[in-house]
Design brief:
single chain, 3-stranded mixed beta sheet, 5 helices, binds iron/sulfur cluster
């Protein structure tokens, strides 16, 4: 499956523990130090899914999995007005699959299109949790929302989390990841294996997406550089029923 990134706005406000070393802030301070990462602004890619090539075909090919708003949060309040327009674009490109991660699932209904109904078929929402407290708050809200495709994203995983009570067929996948960056907090492989076991018991697909920069395994702390964090997680070979890149 082809993949693409669409960042209709950039910048975000930190709202929970998982945001402490947010990669958007890290990337901005490294590559665009003049940017204030906490300021949310529309980007020049706002209408990327509607852009066409010279031959009039769409730049984003039909069937592409589009990682949406990964340099912000799709539900950040500064984007409430822009989101109305973004939903229209998502509806218009119903031949693409839009994958949206959020730490603001409690704002999901703000600016939701009137024709949303039970959800657009081409939208996957990933509810991000980093610890038990955030899971306890966000997942019950998430479960009640009219969304056709729901995933739970445990990232950056900061402690052991108990998800069992929410793992049923309404959840299509659970993913776990450690934290990246120089200041990353430790990700313990035991926590990852524990989530995996919970998923297997509920027969829900599980993906170990990346190790993070500080990975604890069998009592030993490994420092893993960015370019190997995904491949090392794959090497563990612990994914369960995963057959697509999302
Ligand atoms: S919600 Fe996501 S993008 Fe926004 S500050 Fe937190 S980690 Fe960064």
């Amino acid at each position: 499956m082809k993949t693409a990134n669409w960042n209709p706005w950039h910048g975000c406000k930190k709202i929970s523990e998982g945001c402490r070393y947010c990669y958007v802030y890290r990337q901005d301070s490294r590559y665009n130090p003049e940017i204030q990462s906490s300021e949310v602004r529309k980007t020049s890619s706002f209408d990327l899914p509607l852009k066409r090539k010279r031959d009039k075909s769409f730049k984003l090919e039909s069937g592409t999995l589009v990682f949406t708003c990964f340099t912000s949060d799709f539900f950040v309040d500064e984007a409430d007005n822009w989101r109305t327009e973004a939903w229209k674009i998502i509806k218009e490109r119903s031949d693409l699959i839009f994958y949206i991660f959020t730490k603001r699932i409690d704002r999901f209904n703000v600016s939701l299109p009137p024709d949303w109904g039970d959800g657009y078929e081409n939208v996957i929402i990933g509810c991000t949790i980093e610890n038990q407290q955030r899971a306890n708050y966000r997942i019950p809200i998430f479960r009640e929302l009219p969304i056709r495709h729901k995933t739970i994203i445990c990232a950056p995983l900061l402690e052991r989390v108990e998800l069992r009570e929410w793992l049923d067929k309404s959840i299509e996948k659970v993913a776990a990841s450690g934290e990246s960056g120089n200041e990353a907090r430790i990700c313990d492989y035991e926590w990852v294996l524990d989530i995996r076991e919970q998923c297997i018991n509920a027969d829900i697909p599980f993906c170990f997406h990346q190790t993070g920069a500080k990975f604890l395994k069998d009592g030993k702390l490994y420092r893993i550089i960015r370019k190997y964090q995904i491949s090392q997680a794959k090497k563990a070979g612990i994914d369960y029923r995963i057959n697509h890149p999302g």
